[in-house]
Amino acid sequence: MPTFHYSGSSFILDDQPIQILSGALHYFRVVPEYWEDRLRKLKALGLNTVETYVPWNMHEPIKGQFNFEGIADLERFIGLAGELGLHVIVRPSPYICAEWEFGGLPAWLLADSDMRLRCFHQPFLDHVDDYYDVLLPKLKPLLCTQGGPIIALQIENEYGSYGNDKAYLNYLKNAMIKRGMDVLLFTSDGPEDAMLQGGMVDGVLATVNFGSRAEEAFDKLREYQPDAPIMCMEYWNGWFDHWREEHHTRPAEDVAAVLDDMLRLGASVNFYMFHGGTNFGFWNGANGHTADSYEPTVTSYDYDALLSETGEPTAKYYAVQKVISKYVQIEPAEMPAPIPKRAYGTVALKEQAALTANLDRLSKAIHTAYPEPMEKLGQDYGFIQYRTFISGPRPEDELFIQDVRDRALVFLNGELAGTLDRAEPGQQIKFAVPPEGLELTVLVENMGRVNYGPYMKDRKGITEGVRFGRQFLSEWTTHPLPLSDLSGLKFAPGGELNGPAFYRGSFEVDAPADTFIRLEGWTKGVVFVNGFNLGRYWSIGPQQTLYVPGPLLREGSNEIVVFELYGCDAPQVEFVDRADLG
């Protein structure tokens, strides 16, 4: 069977030296119908390898219940890459970062108040073992040692940016080996002393991640690993966006120049990203580099990559291809035809369903003395509503939520009193309580768990309690709202709605094609098309349209549901034929 290893400064495949030219493409961010299109474009660029992470939380959404179907069909994706003549690098570590919700860790880990993450903590390792017992046997027949396309597997991910627990890293290494993972194992870290010292594992190839200053990065790697090939496992050729920011771009000529430096040095390289795709649903992550900072990632994962979010080659694609052609012979390959895009026009959303009138159709009420976070109630993503009663009279005082994770709409007797957002510290909501008392309702949105850094233990909802002045409030009624099933909603013809509500409409499609939803006049919420959660929108930007892949549509009638938190100028959306990422 084929073997892949290294000898001295060269990678060796079937006894021949090989330079790995790879691109990151996450199957879980692209609808399966488009996997082949993206992979063919990757090969046509001149790359010989595709790399992907594996998100644990998508594959084990509930402890002991596994999902490897549809967009989660990892085996199909890897098999397809092999059929197209591509090698595959898989990064199946428990933690992936990837700007993905909780860095790929399943939210149910946080139901255990004593859980420690990414370290030699036996309860965490027990969960990893259970996951590996299911995942790794699926990968084994796909290893190059078994005749498959997988040439290498990663142990953890950028661990030196987080910790230095060698017992933990070696546990993961041995967990892979004893389950038959007999291909090349590697780590990847930033090219800094502390990161390499913390993340390297004896007997495992070290690689580095960076976006510039290639020679300097590889010199640092050689200080720690002098007798091995040099590889940039993540060449950051673009970047991702947070809400409230400008859309990130990087000049094509700059990306090409750094690549030229790497290939001139004889390095192998993996583009991060070759094609970004989309954070559909509630799968976006967030950054929180300090205890007080919080920056959620937008729905688009365009990344200003070589292929756009919709899979179209960019100027960067052709600039990179030109550089690659200087060093290797690019085999002629027919590029897939451009995927058609259509503007289906304006669609009126003529039916509405207020959240307050549909709570019991979406969720079963839970009664607790104090607010509990989502994870303690068995909820992973979406929204959660808390309600209590404050007796009166009371003079004006401030409402405190300890601590809101992440964004809370506060209602007094059903009227919006204000919004508290962990990303905007210093906001205040003050009110007096009349003699008859008032009902306090807090609707909290999970905007995405932190995916990188020291503050990843990011429980959602209300994590401690709610105070009016100095007094903690008790006797709460809670409705978890993951919005995973909207079939119970009761819609009625549209009228004047105040507060969070669902808006539904239908539109006709004669020929399904890629399209984009523009929500002019809407504020913040989530969009579903034919039951598929496209992700979040927010007028604050930078992203102003949501991508709708053509395979989500069907000939004839299609349904769109918008869950809007604040209200809209007019209950209508527009389907346009181009993206607006800000």
UniProtKB/TrEMBL annotation:
It comes from the Bacteria. Residues 500-558 form the Beta-galactosidase galactose-binding domain. The keyword Chloroplast does not apply. Residues 10-326 form the Glycoside hydrolase 35 catalytic domain. Keywords: Glycosidase, Hydrolase. Residues 371-481 form the Beta-galactosidase 1-like first all-beta domain. Belongs to the glycosyl hydrolase 35 family. PANTHER family: BETA-GALACTOSIDASE RELATED (PTHR23421). This is Beta-galactosidase. It comes from Paenibacillus chibensis.
